[in-house]
Write a structure and sequence with these properties.
This protein has about 475 residues and is an alpha/beta fold. Helices cover about 35% and strands about 20% of the residues. Strands 7-1-9-18-17-16-15-14-13-10-11-12 form a 12-stranded mixed sheet, with helices on both faces. Helix 9 links the parallel strand 13 and strand 14. Helix 3 runs parallel beside helix 4 and helix 13 crosses helix 14.
């Protein structure tokens, strides 16, 4: 698990004030970190284009050109002349070792390094800037973004054209802007470059974290004297579209719930290991409801929602005022996708926005929601799923297009509910359920387009 920061200027300032590292030293370390990455990935004499803007991101690129010069075939292109004092100094140093900036770009290089804007970009790009980014994207090369791909603004808003990186080498610490859904296509693999001190010294406290594969903690059964009741009883409410509840129930069983019951008015077809009941069993340790619910007796739903049992609430309930019953319950996990979350925000009179607006400012709206409703756990599904409670926020970046199919969310709800049934705290159940969901998909040997909910359910046995 790594810390994520909304901004790192304060962390740079700490280096200046506490560790006596000036701007020049930090810049040398930043550029040397990119050099080390290139040394590992590419053979000597590879052709490398470094495109620099007028700010400190451009100064990083000029420094990199000097460090690589002599071992690689380096082309330095100054999109704009340096304006900062450190940028002008770095250009003098580069020229002193023999580097001359080029005036015309070739169409192909082994490596292209984007040092045009970085994390300081604010406001829309002009036509000239959009044109240079497009040219870089059209080139055949391994593309590296210095700090943040150009075209991503520091507040996370994206431009019409964004540098599409294979690798983003970000300076000092992870930035929140790198983990919005609308930039996932552009950041590639993200690596943090140290700036003269270790990350432990550079970073401060943060309430935001990036989940990693190493954070996976499966519900392994290490006790010997057990029975089926030891591992909880999950009850899944089945509505009009009972298939959704069926998937959640199967997922819950696959992830270790000792007992799983479908609660339905009528008998439905299900796996023989899934029990059925017309009522919530007395020994139920967790509930899952909302998936495929459709039209359901409102008074009955309110009664179920008032149950003092850990629960996962999903899908159809985010379009109903009944959601207000659970909105501040402890041990309750909400699992909306963006459209459902917009509906929830409207019902709660927090804001009335379209999905497009939400996706531009996902972190902002999640934080606003969790500030007011600090007891529930929110799992906002997406390309980078957000799990949040109170002031704590976690991002799961491990998912990809494999999970984009009907029923995927039902399986996720079942995984989280299964862990709740087994006694996990709500926030931990949400984190682990989300990690399991994404890693189960990646374990599949099928093509990305060929996965089904059953593959996700089967996949947990291979984790």
């Amino acid at each position: 698990m790594q810390k994520i920061f909304d901004e790192v200027n304060s962390l740079d300032n700490k280096c200046y004030e506490r560790y006596y590292l000036n701007e020049d030293i930090l810049m040398e370390h930043a550029s040397d970190g990119i050099k080390q990455y290139i040394n590992k990935k590419f053979h000597k004499n590879s052709t490398i284009l470094i495109v620099c803007g007028s700010g400190n991101n451009g100064a990083d690129g000029i420094t990199l050109a000097r460090l690589l010069y002599g071992e690689y075939d380096v082309s330095l292109y100054l999109y704009k002349e340096p304006k900062t004092a450190i940028g002008k100094l770095q250009l003098k140093r580069a020229q002193a070792v023999g580097i001359k900036s080029i005036k015309k770009l070739a169409t192909s290089y082994d490596v292209v390094v984007d040092c045009v804007f970085g994390s300081g970009l604010s406001g829309d790009l002009d036509d000239k800037s959009l044109s240079i980014i497009k040219k870089l994207n059209d080139m055949k090369a391994h593309k590296i973004a210095c700090d943040i791909p150009s075209g991503i603004q520091k507040n996370g808003v994206v431009s019409k054209e964004i540098f599409k990186a294979d690798s983003t080498l970000t300076m000092g610490a992870l930035k929140m802007a790198l983990f919005l859904d609308n930039v996932k296509e552009y950041v590639g693999k993200i690596k943090v470059i140290d700036l003269g001190v270790s990350s432990k010294l550079y970073e401060d406290k943060s309430n935001s974290y990036l989940l990693e594969k190493s954070d996976l903690k499966l519900p392994l059964r290490d006790k010997l004297n057990t029975n089926k009741g030891t591992f909880g009883h999950l009850a899944v409410i089945a509505g009009q579209k009972e298939g959704a509840a069926n998937l959640s129930a199967m997922a819950g069983f696959a992830l270790g719930s000792g007992l799983v019951s479908l609660v339905a008015h009528e008998k439905i077809i299900c796996k023989p290991y899934i029990m059925q009941s017309h009522f919530i069993p007395k020994n139920t340790t967790a509930l899952a409801l909302g998936m495929g619910l459709g039209k359901y007796d409102k008074s009955e739903i309110k009664t179920i929602l008032k149950e003092k049992i850990p629960k996962v609430v999903d899908a159809d309930l985010f379009y109903s005022d009944d959601i207000k019953v659970v909105i501040d319950q402890k041990n309750c996990v909400l699992t909306p996708h963006p459209k459902e979350f917009c509906s929830l925000l409207k019902i709660l009179e927090l804001t009335d926005i379209a999905v497009e607006e939400l996706q531009k400012h996902r972190m902002q709206y999640v934080k606003e929601f969790c500030k007011k409703y600090s007891n529930v756990v929110l799992v906002l599904k997406g390309a980078n799923t957000i799990i949040a409670q109170g002031k704590k926020l976690y991002i799961n970046p491990l998912g990809d297009s494999r999970l984009s199919f009907g029923g995927s969310g039902d399986v996720l709800a079942g995984f989280i509910a299964s862990l709740l049934a087994q006694g996990y705290e709500a926030i931990e159940a949400a984190k682990q359920g989300s990690i399991i969901h994404t890693l189960s998909a990646k374990k599949s040997k099928k093509n990305k387009y060929a996965l089904s909910p059953f593959d996700l359910i089967k996949g947990v046995s291979r984790l």
